[in-house]
């Protein structure tokens, strides 16, 4: 997760005009495949613009993918995917930094059926807003996500949520687990930030 703003927000500040709403179909047509260094999410008709994962943050994907490839889920065909669209409701399309999908979900995704990842990872930047982070966390769990990790690279800690009210804060040698989504994926905060 990086700095967020609505596409129309800059214009809105200057002219006091509310962001223009766009349909889900238009969002999918015009924003899902943009290659401009940003990722876009659709929130009840408003397009939210975020910086994509940068090279420094891609380290987390690299490390987690290496761990994932040794899990039982990977051995039977599950996949860890970076920045792909995931509908969390009829009003929201999110693009988590990293998401795990089961072997059974992948063919459905590829045929255009929305699937909700059991495990989602968001790399939190210093520019993210706490209220937006918490709203998105609630969305993920309402959609059926089982585990959400918030990685805070500046403070070298990971918040591991198994519900919006249940969180384990991992620092130093404390182990971060992707259970119950992936019971055999674990890493200490110390290793993740090494």
Automatic annotation (TrEMBL):
Keyword field contains Transmembrane: yes
Keyword annotations: Membrane, Transmembrane, Transmembrane helix
SUPFAM superfamilies to which the protein is assigned, alphabetical: Restriction endonuclease-like (SSF52980)
Stretches of the chain forming a coiled coil according to its record: none
Keyword Membrane among UniProt keywords: yes
UniProt xrefs under CDD domains: DUF820-like
Residue span, Putative restriction endonuclease domain: 30-189
A Pfam match: Uma2
InterPro entries for this protein: Nuclease_put_TT1808, Restrct_endonuc-II-like, Uma2
Region (Disordered): 1-21
Transmembrane segments: 60-82
Identification of the protein by name: Putative restriction endonuclease domain-containing protein
Protein species of origin: Haliscomenobacter hydrossis (strain ATCC 27775 / DSM 1100 / LMG 10767 / O)
